[in-house]
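Worked example (supplementary).
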Amino acid sequence: MLTEPELLRKSVQYRKDLLQLIKTAKAGHTGGDLSCLDILNVLYNRVLRVSPETFKSPDRDYYIQSKGHCAEALFVVLADRGFFPKSDLQTLNQFGSHYIGHPTRDVNGVEQNTGALGHGLAVAVGIALAGKIDRRDYRVFVLLGDGELAEGSNWEAAMTAAHYRLDNLVAIVDRNGLQITGSTEDVCQLAPLDEKFAAFGFEVRRCDGNDVGDLVQTLGEVPFRPGKPSLILAKTKKGKGVSFMENVAKWHHKVPSDEEYSQAMAELEAAATALK
Amino acid sequence: MKPALANLEVFAATLLELARQDSDLLVVTSDSRGSAKLAPFAKAAPGQIVEVGIAEQNLVGIAAGLSAAGKNVFAVSPACFLTARSLEQIKNDVCYSDRPVSVIGISAGVSYGALGTTHHSLHDFAVLRAIHNITIVAPADNFETREAVKAAAALETPVYLRFGKKTMPHLPRVVPGFEFGKACLVRPGKDISFIACGETVGPALAAAELLAGDGIECRVISMHTIKPLDEKAVLEAARETRGVITVEEHSVHGGLGEACASLLLQSGVQARFKIVGFPDVHTVNGSQPEIFQHNGIDGPGLAATAKKLFSQ
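After joint prediction of all chains, the assembly is encoded as:
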């Protein structure tokens, strides 16, 4: 379990690993990967009771990534946690590789195949419900993109989560406010998400999804209320950590040019130095 | 033929038997327990039924999640909604993700009769056939239903079972036993072959009995498993009889008939061949028997089709 200073350094390292991966593969959802990386960092290094050794245990915590297009961020973290050798990622997107642009169970550590949006929450509800039926104390964490909340299936699943009082379910919304076309509020207004999820029966907390300290504290308090599913509205920045990528919609799935890559890595090196 | 029960009633009774032996067996319903004849199940095994409300996408997603956590799940909903609205969940959350969920389409085909096209499922074989990693089964009678439910519970890959509402006759069995992917011979014959599935096997058998009076001996095959297809049974029917008629409560596009046609053509087997199903037009309104008759899916209609093929 990492300390907060270690988590801060890890976040920078993950961002460097991520950009290197995307640059090598010449593909990736750069902006969303960067917005959710701190959440993944805190989950896998502080919160989730799962490791390569316990991944098949019926008592492990589950993590479902509903925003599957940010697979590169998940792969970087899983590799660092020892679920597979980092060198495997050199094959990302190559013919015949298991490492593709969305999570699949062919990759050790991935719980569920995702990619089509609006699927993860219902699957997470099913796993959480099974935990209640079997009286196991595992928890189920699911990461949702904000753009994907336009999918009605999320709200079907949200109703069921509250109906069955699934306080072992923690949904985290990566609230970066951007989707491929532009602002989520311009595309189809999502706000007020906190009130919406509260009305659907979740106990809602807001936090800064790019602040590892805030994430550690917030995730450390789940379930927020016995008998209710938890929802964390994690405010993030798309492209977080690289100045010219932050809050710019075009970085949704843009691959940096050589010049942009050098500049981004220089910024991250400086951030790493500042944390030493 | 002696009347028996609706296949759905046998499905529900068999499921309860299995649930009593396996506490991990769960049924998930979308306000559909009544239509699925599962009310007695819910009363007898309340801890093994999960209600999600009228939300079919949710039904299949949750079923996949329950399966991921080790449950043996039957996801039950009207076939019309289950294989359309939640098709993406079947494709991704179940089939692609290797979750051995039993997807149960109830009141299938035109079982709902005059409720109209919104409630008909004449597309389910077609859409599911194009998805990898799912067995597609339409049991014909109570025996096949019971065996199919037991086999589905034991199968370690996804399966789709399709049931109608009608009381089904007990069909004769030339060879005992039931296995997914292995057709059941209901009547031997050397002249014409009917390859039917689900609730159309009864009408095919009725046609065979009519034709026997005219000296035409028909082979009747219950091709309960649409995928994987019993290729041997289809090829033998084409080689050993003078013509093949496929019969299904499904669009003529993409179902059992086209599966057989594709096999025969690609195997280089030439045969007189006719697909009987639902034409590519808006479905006529009426009860299931009326709609069947309108489309020639009854004893006299199928007998006429066979005679025409036989005289070619």
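Two points are worth noting when inspecting this output. The two ends of chain B are 31 Å apart (CA to CA). Chain B has two domains: 3-168, 172-310.
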